[in-house]
Amino acid sequence: MSQQGAAPLTKAEIIAEAKRLGAELVGFASVGRWAEHGDLSWEYDPQRLWPLTKTVIAISIPSLLPITETKINAVYHAQYTNTNQLLDEIAYRLSAFLNRHGHAAFNICRDGYGVDAMRLRPVAVFSHVWAAHYAGLGEVGWNHCLITREFGPRHRLVSVLTALELEGDPMVEEGSICNKCQLCQKACLTQSFSGNKHKDRRSNMNKYACLNRRAKFKGEPCGYCLKVCPVGEDRKRFQSRKVNHYFEERTAFFAKNRVSLDPVHPMNLGPLPSSES
Ligand code: SF4
Ligand code: SF4
User: Distance from CA of residue 78 to its chain's centroid?
Assistant: First the structure.
């Protein structure tokens, strides 16, 4: 339902604008899904943040696999910053587009709290992961990331809240993407995940263990729980189907407590053979 005097906007028009701005995946969650599914406390309900919310628009852009794999700090961090800025810009500009058409909307930045603040209290203002799940982009996997068919967990998310009432997209059935292989748990440098895959929908996550990894490992990029995940069309595209080398890399990482940097090649693991693992 449109606000009084507002120009009508369809989902297709909003998706087209989001993609023109650089979004890869776009989905719509009707606000009732938070209460209906009850996965989160009321603190995280969009209507608690903003009572006018009728729809949450979830937006994702990929973290490109070779950069997720690189061990060159500067390359990894620069790309991380670039994707975050792009994501926030897309969401801001999409909010402005909705407002221009008469529909109240604003974006919630992707995070930006900083590790120090997160160490004191590892909670966010809003869960983009669950918003994207309710918007049908993927499912919340064993590693607590949103797992998509396109990129597995290798992407970043942001959300736009709007008073424009739109039909929610079909949600992904839980268990249809994350196969609970637990490779993310096995590869984690800090043993942040635990749980019984036969009983639990997803792992228990020790957020402090993950947050403290930077101090422990001198700020080296981590993300083993992302890059090891075998799900995602991106693995096929980058001809990277094997995962054993992550475990070898991890062993070496522990042995040295640092990783070797290849000053020449930004992907020191190199392209992998296209055969199945
Ligand atoms: S690595 Fe396996 S268990 Fe972990 S999120 Fe990916 S599919 Fe799920
Ligand atoms: S980022 Fe690293 S330490 Fe944190 S959960 Fe993933 S693998 Fe574990």
Answer: 18
